[in-house]
Amino acid sequence: MEQHVNTAERILETAFELMQTRGYNAFSYADVAERVGIRTASIHYHFPAKSDLAREVCAHYRTALIATLAAIDRDLTDPADRLQRFVALQGRGLDHRPPMCLCALLAAECPTLPEEVNVEVRGFLSDQETWLTRVLGDGVATSAFCLTVAPEDAAQVLRAGLAGAMLAARASNDRTRYDTIAQSLLTALLRSH
Question: How many domains does the chain have?
């Protein structure tokens, strides 16, 4: 049983790397099998279809996001500090290879993704927006900052803007682009009292 678990984990890790580098449509079971050193039949044993594998990768990624957001809430009480931590953590993904938030990248492929994968991608993005809406609302309630728009609108703008900032940094291979865009977004959305 332990070997099956390790094989499944290696398949998931490899699929994650390939999806983050190539997207969903440009990787295959053959690519995963070659990197893991197994036959494609072994992948089908754990994940009968490519959509099953991709859904599981996205579900794991989403679970990690939820744990990260809970840790921010647990560690920090000030809404401005929580927001800054979130922005910094989003940017930290650019320091890894390959750089990019998986679900932000997959969002561009939504029209061609299987529905079960789309559900996880949309869920991930919704989880981010829900958390951001709450943090932004908390910031208004505690007078930490004043929004120029409603918290839910600011959350959408911020999430989309950070995804765009990641793309700009990735395309230019310049991490500082993310930092500059992210701070500009925060400045535009938030006004100090």
Answer: 1
